[in-house]
Write a structure and sequence with these properties.
Layout lengths: L6 E7 L3 H12 L4 E4 L11 H7 E7 L2 E6 L12 E2 L4 H5 L6 H10 L2 E2 L8 H12 L4 E3 L1 E3 L18 H9 L3 E3 L2 E9 L2 E11 L3 E14 L5 H8 L14 E8 L12 E6 L2 E5 L4 H10 L12 E8 L6 E2 L5 E2 L4 H20 L3 E5 L3 E2 L23 E3 L13 H15 L4
Parallel strand pairs: 1-2, 1-12, 2-9, 12-21
Antiparallel strand pairs: 3-4, 5-8, 6-8, 7-14, 10-11, 11-12, 13-16, 13-19, 13-20, 14-15, 15-16, 17-18
Helix pairs in contact: 1-6, 1-10, 4-10
Length: 421
Amino acid sequence: MNDKTPEFDAIIVGSGPGGATVARELSRRGQQVLLLERGGNQPLKNGVLPIASMMNAVSVGDKLASGRALTTGGTTAVYLGATVRPRVELFQSLGIDISREVEEAEKELPLAPLPDALLRPQSIKLRETATALGYELFTSRMLVDQSKCSVGYTYGARWTARAYVQDAVNSGATLVNQARALRVLVEDGRAVGVEYEQRKGRKAVEIRQARASTVVLAAGGPASPVILRRSGLKNAADSGFYCHPSIAVYGTSPLKGQEGFGGSWGLRLNDEIRIGDANFDRTFYRLIMLGQRQWRRVFSYTKSIGMGVMVKDSVGGELGEDLLYRKPLTEEDRDKLAQGEQVARRVLEHAGAKNLFTSAVSSSHIGGAIKIGRHVDAKLQTQYRNLHVCDGSVLPPEVNTPTLTLICLGKYLANQIAPAV
């Protein structure tokens, strides 16, 4: 550091739902905030190439990978918009009370179930079929601004963390894109800043530093544990992680119809197997088919019909000394996936689906590597003072739909750092 090193009240690494929320809340309270985002800041556009250009995969071994988006707003740029109400009692058992923050978030966000007019006919048919077969269904509240959907499905109606980033910038925060955090700067056991790599063009990079009295890592479930390791916290991720393996079953349907929001309903076989609607918009469907090398299906969107299966796995595996994640699929994981696939195929076949195929196994998301009560305390603070973590890496495995929970944790953390007056 030198006299020209910029100084802030807080540096937030990552602009996903957790980081964007902390940045928004602290900026509104007059704090000088630097928000570092590894990805770019191009406007979100619907289409295979624009979406694919921001996607990035993190390997977890066994040819298993977890996808994420590197862009302002993080993976909310490509998520479904489905939410689950945060489990207040779960976090209370860990010494964290987010009840006030949950109430606040629910009032300010566009949270509501979707009407059938915003779903694909295939989705409605599968929901009716699953009900007729005796399965107990649930409906998700979606982060969708339905006022923007006067003509049906609208790509830009889904809420993303970019909205909170813009709020933060409007309140004075500094957003720096193409900035990859390398390590947290520490003095006398206290976080004092961040060293990051600033991309300048396609090949040139510049190493920079910034100083702050508070640092928040919100770089995402896979990235924050790596940054902690690079910063000297060798016990980060020493208990493993979860990745919630998933598959999708797709076929062709006699039904044809418009685009719609996917993921708005599902069914639970038990606490560990979840099956849901996988009738997404055209772009997301095409990306899946391209990824599975289902060339003939890429352009058969109007006839497509599908269901997804996600299973809860136990915490295990490792983040190696080479900073790579490794976690083999167990026989138990495979058995759970097979059970879910069997139910998905049954529902699809009863709904008239033909030509079924099952995708390769992927990872829903990497999380749980940073344990509350072990690696961070009830203020989400590490053993380095003023260094906090607020992303999927701190979420227990019981949280399998993380966006709303991370927003509430972001509000909670902001209240710990700079209590609202």
